[in-house]
Amino acid sequence: MSPDVVTPPPPRSKSIPWAAILLVANLVLVWALPLIPAQDLPQHLTYIRIFADYGSDALPFHDFYTLPRGFQPYDSVYLLLAWIARHSSVLTALRLALSLYVVLMFVGFDALSASIHGRGPGRRPLPSALMASMLVWSSALAMGFLQYFLCVPFVLLTVAALVRGSEKDAPDWVVLSAMPAAMVVASMHLVAAGALAVFAVLHTLVGVRRRGFGTRLTMAAVVLGSLVTTLVLWRFWGGEVLGAKPRGVAFAEAWRNAQGFEFVNNMLDATWYDPPVTFNYLVWGTLGPYRIVGLAIALAAVVACIALVAPVHKSEHLRPEARAYAQAACTFALFTCLIPWGIQVPSEITWLNFRLISLAFALMLPLVPPGWFEVRRARVGLIGLALVYLGNFTWNAIGFNREAAEPLRLLSRVPNQDVVLSLVFRSRSAYFAKGIRVTHFLPMYFTVLDGGIATQFWAKYTEHLPIDYRPGKRPAQSDDWSPQTFDETKHLRDASWVLLQRTTTDDPTGVRNDADRAEKKLAKGADMVDCEGIWCLYHVKGKT
């Protein structure tokens, strides 16, 4: 080629508008939905509200609750969002955090995809943008694991730096960029930090005999060192990491009480779920946390996308650096399906496999080669798939908000200086999976939105949670997940109001019978004020 001939730059990708459209659409949902459908989220927002307004004389928080004496990484999100909430509101603080989460999910996924498949002027951003959008409204988010799902983009960013930094020609800034991202993860959630550490180790071990093992080992050391250093610093400055002194591992006792390898269960006090439950987690983690209709729609869209892509995609060989990542990602995905649901030693950690299965999907999806979507029909298939995922969440989230509006209207009639007891029998939504009970903690919005006292509050039911009741100030409450234990002579002692969620015809017969008995008991000590749908508000007799 003549030196005078200038090679024209590659044409600007037509996929850029789609990246912007998907990003904006997700941000619009964050700000347009009245409530984010997520099971445990109201409890986490309650901690934020108490931290934000603990000193307010207009609210009763100081009379009921005590703040933590030390600091642990789990508190970091609460404290940051509480500071924002003091200048706005709890929901505004949440929306700002979710907005950052959405943007970083797109950035992190694109960075990880680029580190796997290579960078260059011809790299297509369309697959990264669309597949990142498919990860935003994950099953971990639907469960309301606030600190955990906010960590996921930072895990993607760290892993992107881990993979890119393992290449021989990687600039120093890429290696160093793994450190702040890993430190953020360690400062937010220990399970996410543990998952990141496991992946870093796997990424090194699967490439022991491959070229570049030394650089992979160096990058793993950078990530692991950042995680450990951060936790040590928080321990030094804050005094706590797990929220309490960790339980010791009694090896000898566990071995004496076990039959063979069963000693692992005794040693960690582990809880395991059977394969069908784990399969549920896999389905929700990949297709979405919805009921059968939503899952069927998502599955049909996946099949249709594969049908459009399969005849036209080109076979692409992974780069040597990417093969180690692929093996590590597949091994990590298998690992997430084989670990227990929860352990109690050294500290209580639950929903382990559920959380990590969701993360494994986020780490596996970038392996899809962008080159598969060079042909228009393949791009159309992927665009359709991403729109189905986004539309699925949007439709179900709107339905959930219609359900949530009923108890919120009832709670708005209660003075915020009073105490509300809740009896939630159905818990489930008509739109989200039965195992993801997004309506169960709706009574907690009495605290989040109005600043009142809801007896359903977790408080410090496990040691890593930061806020507890003052001695003698915990209101009487039947077991939250067993409302059939309600006793009108004991459980109406401290509450002035009761919010009851009735059952429907698709609830089990035993649950419907329990709810009917509880409502008859409630009628002896409280007067019905009003009902909205299956929610009813009662005023306790003799209470002003």
Architecture overview:
The protein is globular and about 75 Å long. By secondary structure, the protein is mainly alpha-helical. Helix 1 runs parallel beside helix 6 and helix 6 (126-136) packs parallel to helix 18 (376-411). The chain is built from 21 helices and 7 strands. The protein has helices spanning 16-32, 41-53, 61-64, 75-86, 90-117, 126-136, 139-142, 146-165, 172-186, 190-205, 213-238, 251-256, 263-268, 275-287, 292-309, 320-338, 352-364, 376-411, 445-450, 488-491, 509-525, and strands at residues 65-66, 419-424, 453-454, 468-469, 497-501, 526-532, 535-540. Helix 19 (445-450) links the parallel strand 2 (419-424) and strand 3. The chain folds into 2 domains: 26-396, no CATH class; 404-540, no CATH class. The longest helix has 36 residues, at 376-411. It has a 5-stranded mixed beta sheet. A two-stranded antiparallel sheet has the order 1-4. The model is unreliable at 9-15 (pLDDT under 50). Helix content is 56%, strand content 6%.
Annotation keywords:
single chain, about 550 residues, mainly alpha, 2 domains, 5-stranded mixed beta sheet, two-stranded antiparallel sheet, about 55% helix
Element pattern in H and E: HHHEHHHHHHHHHHHHHHHEHEEHEHEE
Rg from alpha-carbon coordinates: 25 Å
* Coarse structural class: mainly alpha
- Measured as a percent range, the helix fraction is 55-70%
Total DSSP helices? 21
Any idea how many domains? Answer: 2
Number of strands: 7
